[in-house]
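**Discrete fold encoding**
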Amino acid sequence: MAKTSKPRKLTVYLYIPNIIGYIRVLMNVVAFALCFSHKNLFSVLYFLSFVCDGVDGWCARKFNQVSTFGAVLDMVTDRISTACLLVILSQQYRPGLVFLSLLALDISSHWLQMYSTFLLGKVSHKDVKDSSSWLFKLYYGNRMFMAFCCVACEVLYIILFLIAEPHNESVIDVLLHASKQSFLLSALVVPVLFGWAIKQTVNVIQMKTAADVCVLHDINKKQKS
């Protein structure tokens, strides 16, 4: 019988979704290089990079090019781009610790979730069918709901970046003032804040659930030794 040829390393690196991932990285590099001199262009490039996150996932499934490398590339790109924007916002608003705390929550919850996924031998960090949290299962089980929450979160950060004043002010004061000046913005803020709040809640649940997996793994390992 003829042996099925294995894909070479270069082949995986050149998967269509992974190429889209490289383009996302380049868009983010250009976006942050221009963020203070061209705020509107930054916002467009940043949001396009975020949209491409959904496109590369669709391509991976469509062309049967799902890969561990692609999943990690996606998550690292997402986390770094969001982290960079949160660092910028922490310098534009007071208290800046709020944004740095959101950054820490985002990175730690996703890192723990990825690590716990490998401990459990699961293929994807989105496999949470055995979770006791209905919100956690809804978030990862419903692509449209997860997309809404993720888009809402990033749109909120982009809005805050665009309306930031030259001098540091309270984020709530700036957001309320801008909403009073624009009906479109005031109509957008409510659903965006709702989606953002859901995503932060999921991050907390994700961090606690993943931490529990790590602790149980340690307990089981000690019992076997």
Q: What stands out?
A: The chain has a mean pLDDT of 91. The two ends are 44 Å apart (CA to CA). The chain has nine helices and two strands.
